[in-house]
Structure prediction request, 236 residues.
Amino acid sequence: MTWSIIARDPMTGQIGIAVATRFFAVGALVPHIAPMVGGIATQALVNPYYGIDGVKLLREGKAPSDVIATLVAADDGRESRQLHIMDATGRIAAHTGRECVDWCGHLAGAGFSLAGNMLAGPRVLDDTAQAYVANDKLPFAQRLIAAMKAGEAAGGDKRGRQSAALLIHGGEEWSNLDLRVDDHIDPLAELERLEQVSRERWVHFRQFLPTRTNPAGVTDRATIDASVQAAIASQA
Prediction:
C-alpha cells in the first residue's frame, strides 16, 4: 500500500527518504534514518521495529543484507512485510514477503533504492527511478519529490492517495527536513508546497541551530535575522 525511495545525495552526503500511500500518516512509521550511516523504509503491514532496531544495527556497522536477515528472522509476520535499506556506501538490500499485495517489488539503482506494494504496476517504480536519475540537477529534496510525482503519474498506490512524507538527514541527529502530509486529497502536491515554504526561511535559519561541533549554535538574534533576510533578498 506504499512506495518509497531511499537515496544519498552525492554532493552533500545527506540521506533522504520520500514515501507516499493511500493510508493515514505514512511519515510517522515508514522512514527511518541513521544520519550519515543509512536509511530504512518499513512498509506493507508495517513493523515499526524494523526501522527502530534496523538503524541501531546499521550504526553498529552491519551490512544492509545482514540487517534484513536479523530483522525478518525474529518476526513471524515477515511474509506480510516489505523492507528496504541503503547505507551510506550505497549497499542495498530488500525484503518483500510472499503475502504482500501485488504489484509489489523492489528496484535498486546507483545511490538509490525503491520498493513498493499494492501498486498499479511495476511502472510506478520504473518511472520513479527514471525521474530521480533525470533530475540530478535539482536540489536533493526537490529531486526526491519529482521522482515520487513521476511514480504517482504512473499509477502510484492502486487504491488512491492520502499521505506522503519527506525525511532528510545530514550530519546531525536532528533532521535537515522532516515534512509530513498526513491526510490530503493530493499529498505529493502538498508535500511539494511545504518544501517550497521551507526554503522561505527554514533552510536559512537551520544553520544557526546547535550542532555537535558547536553545541551553542548561534543565539544572537540580530545576526540570525540579518543572515536570513539577506538570503531571502538574494532569492528575490
